[in-house]
Specification:
The complex is a heterodimer.
Chain A (H helix, E strand, L loop, with lengths): L2 E3 L24 E2 L9 E7 L2 E7 L2 H16 L7 E6 L1 E2 L5 E2 L2 E5 L4 E2 L1 H4 L6 H20 L2 E2 L8 E6 L2 E6 L6 E2 L5 H24 L9 H6 L1 H13 L2 E4 L4 H12 L2 E10 L5 E11 L1 H10 L5 H17 L7 H18 L11 H19 L5 H11 L15 E2 L2 E2 L21 H7 L10 H8 L1
Antiparallel strand pairs in A: 1-5, 2-3, 3-4, 4-8, 5-8, 6-7, 9-11, 10-13, 11-12, 14-16, 15-16, 17-18
Chain B lengths: L3 E8 L9 E8 L4 E5 L6 H9 L6 E6 L2 E2 L10 E3 L12 H11 L4 H14 L15 H14 L4 E5 L7 H18 L2 E6 L2 H7 L2 E6 L2 E6 L1 H6 L4 H6 L6 E6 L4 E4 L2 E4 L2 H9 L4 E6 L4 E4 L3 E11 L2 E8 L4 H6 L3 E6 L9 E6 L6 E4 L8
Parallel strand pairs in B: 3-8, 3-9, 6-7, 7-8
Antiparallel strand pairs in B: 1-2, 1-4, 4-5, 9-10, 11-14, 12-13, 14-20, 15-19, 16-17, 16-19, 17-18
Helix pairs in contact in B: 2-3, 2-4, 3-4, 4-5
Classes of the chains: A alpha+beta, B alpha+beta.
């Protein structure tokens, strides 16, 4: 009987065919969702109405990754949610099978292989890379050394006009108290190399938009990361007469979406120079504020956009004197919720609620410009649903058969296997023959063999 | 190619009582395959990462060749971490999968092609170069990953538990391939593992570490035949060396009703150090059945091919004592093994070394 390790047990996992290797699972259990490439067998599996990701990997790695993802959840860092590790699997013939790590599929997520392909705008590419850099910096802030930074190990979610990046794979990761500069630079070097490889791969498969060049794409990553890191953690020194620079630094960090939980301020004995350095910064400045005011849990830039609309609402209804949380409740029930409920149920899988609200705000701005009047929010919502949302692909759970570009994949459940039309006999490989002859290891040291080899 | 030198290299983690690596002195020769081995937390991985530039060196220094790299960022050290991440890209050929990082570094195409071809030749992958990687086996994928590091032509290869995520059989075949390849390439290699069997079968020399301190660095056979302290004696070898402590008398060490004979000069050395008890070490294969010698109650007999392993405890212990008593293991070949439940006597066979250690310092006396 397989064993299930889980903090939140899900009994629906029990009847799944754990006695089969993932590659042999009947397709009834599988969902073909676009995703990155991986060195292990990974499948999206249907569990009731949910979709989970299942990865077959040796036990130590599965348990390690499960714990790492739990740590990230505890630290409030964007990552997929670990659900269970299935161990003690045996095949039909009694042979042991590798354990499986199960994580929850991230709703409304977009893997890079679908994002960088069809006529992507350079602007979008920049936003995706920015999201990746923010994720890397956030991980480094909590002492998380990833060691396998790559687009295949990231999922993107729409976040107002930007993207939010989520970590998907923590197999190689390590958690330290504080990372050294060398460790961060090493992670960055891995990121640049892997991204170049991934873009080159898309290019080789004719899946990368022609306007994009792999080298140019990765060229700016290091500078973006270092700039962000300097802003988040760097020391700033100024004259004792420029104390407003403390406030400016905090505002800049807020604008980047970070709260300053601890700022180290030291003054020279004569007070002529001041030195400041953020010691603890937490991502999610706007997310937290919106959550506190409305209970809505959304991405950072969505929160920023919604908060801006809340401020406008407050001004428009002339309630600047009233307690902010009371106005927030009015905004939620009179502005946000009517727009969200105006979306017919069958279209709700296209975007999450906060994203729809953000896009309606955009739609209303353009409509108001065009019509030279202030278009009411609900009219804008109707127009947006009719003109935009109806035509969008479903992003909640994309279950179109998996293809890359116009070509069929060799295995619709695994893009790591390449295209279907590239089969051919494998050349002979004497190394493989030798490897097959290696006896099953006993774990014992064959000292006699060592002596023979050593002469 | 280059030598690597750790000179009193020390790493202390902020807030820690003890250094993670304490004054490590290690000279690695040009082209040598050096394995760092030890239990979890011994400092082996930290040492490798100090060399890679991932961990700060709080005191001492590290040299690659004549260059002091102690303060250099990782990318300027001319090293390659092998297998760290080896996703293979499905739409690129095996050749491009090996050489893409050179393209990023701006190496001209002709040079790239030459280097990839050379690496493929070394790895037996020439006929795969223009294929896509999808049909490659686990072992072949490992070789492509090795190829990625080889084409970079670094001065030093670093490998940090590279085989830990492979299944047992692939681990054995890959380690054989890595060792053979390293010999042919002749590139200085530092390899970290917790698995002493892996260390002993791969390294030119093996550095055994414990609690941040280097215990011994020697060839695998010297480590096996002449461990310098009790820790190395117990760590190297599988099954492990039998380590039995007893009181000294004028002829040797008392073990149960038997005195294991120990040379007088060694006993004198022990006494000079203030030892009343010492530890004798006997490898399982050095035991022979005899009508005299150390009496052992045999609990389990396991027959493996031509050999039989017997597992037991010193005779005359109560059932409770047996539970916590050290296991005595013997490998007996070419004769009928004893039966479980019987009491037998073992002596160290002729021509075999008896290892003797001070209980005060743990150091080797013999």
């Amino acid at each position: 009987m397989p064993r299930i390790l889980s903090a939140k047990p899900d009994s629906r996992l029990i009847p799944l065919p754990w006695e089969l290797p993932l590659t042999e699972w009947p397709t009834d259990y599988l969902v073909a969702l676009p995703r990155g490439i991986s060195r292990h067998v990974v499948r999206f599996i249907k569990v009731g109405n949910d979709v989970y990701a299942a990865k077959e990997v040796i036990e130590a790695a599965a348990v390690h990754e499960y714990r790492m993802l739990q740590e990230l959840a505890r630290e409030n860092t964007p990552a997929v949610e670990p659900l269970a590790v299935i161990t003690d699997r045996r095949g039909m013939g009694g042979q042991p099978l590798d354990p499986v790590l199960v994580t929850r599929h991230l709703d409304f997520s977009l893997p890079y292989r679908s994002l960088f392909s069809q006529s992507v705008r350079p602007d979008t590419v920049n936003r995706l890379l920015d999201a990746m850099v923010v994720l890397l910096a956030r991980l480094h802030l909590i002492g998380f050394l990833w060691l396998d930074v790559s687009l295949s190990n990231i999922l993107f979610r729409r976040d107002a006009g930007e993207f939010a990046a989520y970590l998907v794979d923590a197999e190689t990761a390590e958690l330290h108290d504080v990372l050294t500069r060398g460790q961060r630079e090493h992670d960055l070097m891995i990121a640049v190399t892997n991204l170049f490889g991934e873009f080159s791969d898309l290019e080789a498969g004719q899946l990368l938009d022609e306007s994009l060049d792999p080298l140019t794409l990765v060229d700016t990553i290091s500078a973006r990361y270092r700039d962000l890191w300097a802003e988040l953690t760097g020391v700033e020194e100024f004259s004792g007469t420029e104390l407003d620079r403390i406030e400016s630094r905090v505002r800049r960090l807020n604008a980047l979406g970070f709260d300053v939980a601890e700022l180290d301020i030291t003054t020279s004995p004569d007070g002529s120079t001041v030195r400041i350095q953020p010691k603890v910064v937490d991502a999610g400045h706007h997310t937290r504020r919106l959550m506190r005011l409305t209970g809505l849990d959304v991405e950072e830039n969505q929160a920023r956009r919604l908060l801006n609309d809340l401020d406008t609402f407050r001004f428009r209804t002339n309630q600047q004197q009233l307690d902010e949380s009371l106005v927030a409740h009015q905004w939620l029930t009179q502005s946000f919720e009517p727009v969200v409920t105006a979306v017919p149920a069958h279209l709700r899988g296209k975007r999450d609620a906060a994203q729809i609200f953000h896009e309606v705000l955009d739609y209303r701005w353009y409509a108001s410009q065009r019509e030279n009047r202030e278009v009411p929010m609900l009219d804008a919502a109707d127009g947006y649903i009719r003109d935009v949302l109806e035509g969008l692909p479903d992003e909640a759970m994309n279950s179109r058969p998996l293809a890359e570009g116009s070509r069929q994949l060799a295995n619709p459940f695994d893009p790591s296997q390449g295209f279907a039309d590239e089969e051919g006999a494998m050349p002979d490989d004497p190394w493989e023959v030798d490897a097959a002859e290696v006896p099953e290891p006993t774990g014992m040291l064959d000292i006699a063999a060592l002596r023979r080899a050593g002469g | 190619m280059a030598t690597v030198s750790f000179k009193d290299a020390t790493r202390v983690y902020p807030g820690a009582d003890h250094p993670a690596v304490d004054k490590l002195n290690l000279e690695i020769g040009d082209g040598e395959f050096m394995v760092l081995v030890g239990p979890s937390g011994c400092g082996k991985s930290t040492s490798l990462r100090m060399l890679a530039g991932l961990e700060e060196v709080n005191a001492g220094s590290i040299y690659i060749g004549e260059r002091n790299v102690t303060e250099l960022p990782p990318k300027d050290r001319d090293i390659a971490m092998v297998f760290q991440n080896y996703a293979l890209y499905p739409h690129m050929t095996v050749g491009d999968n090996m050489g893409f990082a050179l393209k990023m570094a701006g190496v001209p195409k002709a040079e790239r092609d030459t280097r990839v071809l050379e690496a493929a030749h070394l790895l037996g992958l020439e006929s795969f170069l223009s294929r896509k990687p999808k049909a490659l086996s686990g072992g072949q994928r490992q070789r492509v990953a090795m190829g990625r590091a080889i084409v970079r032509q670094p001065q030093v290869f670093l490998m940090d538990e590279p085989l830990s995520n492979l299944d047992a059989k692939l681990r054995v075949s890959t380690r054989t391939q890595i060792a053979a390849l390293q010999t042919r390439l002749g590139v200085t290699t530092v390899y970290v593992t917790h698995d002493q069997v892996e260390a002993m079968t791969m390294g030119d020399r093996v550095a055994v570490m414990k609690d941040g301190i280097l215990q011994q660095c020697d060839s695998p056979l010297t480590l096996y035949d002449k461990p310098e302290n009790i820790f190395v004696a117990g760590f190297i070898g599988s099954p492990a060396m039998n380590l039995i402590s007893g009181n000294i008398n004028e002829n040797g060490v008392v073990v149960g009703d038997w005195t294991v004979p120990v040379a007088r000069d060694i006993l004198a050395k022990a006494k000079a150090k203030g030892d009343d008890t010492i530890t004798v070490g006997i490898r399982p294969e050095d035991f022979e059945l005899s009508d005299h010698g150390i009496a052992v109650d045999v609990a389990v007999v396991e027959e493996l091919g031509a050999d039989a392993y017997t597992y037991g405890t010193l005779a005359g212990l109560s059932d409770d004592e047996k539970l916590s008593a050290p296991q005595i293991v013997a490998r007996l070949s070419g004769r009928t093994p004893p039966e479980r439940g019987t009491t037998v006597r073992f002596v160290a066979g002729e021509g075999h070394k008896l290892h003797v250690f001070s209980n005060k310092t743990g150091e080797r006396l013999s």
